[in-house]
Please model this.
Amino acid sequence: MSKKIAYTSMLTGFFLGLLVISLQIAGFSFTTVLAQESEIESISATEGTANTTEGTANTTESTANTTEGASVPATPEPKASSVEIGGSIAQQGTVTSTQDPLPGHEAHQLAILLPPRVDGSIYEGTLTYTASKPVEVVVLQNFANNTAVDSYYGGLATAPLGEGTVAISLISPQYSGPINAASLPFAGNALALHTINGDPFAATYTVTGNVLGAETFDSIVPAPIAAAQADAGQTAEDKDGDGDKKDKKDKKDKKDKEDKEDKEE
Model:
């Protein structure tokens, strides 16, 4: 009987040991799983935060790019400025004025219709327009010999433009009715509408014509010739005046001498 009890106790202890070992293994596995899950959640949370931060950065960069793009509006350039020499132009549209960019003309308003061409060629044709205010027509001409014209001949309306100088033709049409409209021929290196009083304006226009290569032909009489002639005339007058003064002085001296001799006698 005692042996049976001892045998039973031994079996019971054996099974209890197995149970304890099983529980320890299960606890270890459960703890490991929990740790792994915690680590995975931590990594996922970190990646989510990084992705959110990156998304925010991308959104900020996109916003910055959008803002940057909006701050630099594209400046439209009419096709007439790139038409080959000998080609024709037909252009129409509506424009609003901005500040005149020519130095010294900042108080004026200007709307460019045909910009200066880089090849120095000219436009010739017809302009028809209607404007919200009484406007002038501006035609610019290349003026390469600005230093060759002496002030003796008077002054021309010019302004620096780029690396050169332009002469300004300011044409003031006579508006006979309530609508500020006109149609006129033109020829030059650029064409614009303009208000010299600085009033902002809008205009709708049509311009047709051709692009031509222009030969430069100048006939400028050197200023020293005309100036020398004027100086020569002034010098002659001065010499005549000096001669008259000398004659008068000689006569006076002679008379004084005769009067003195008469007194001595």
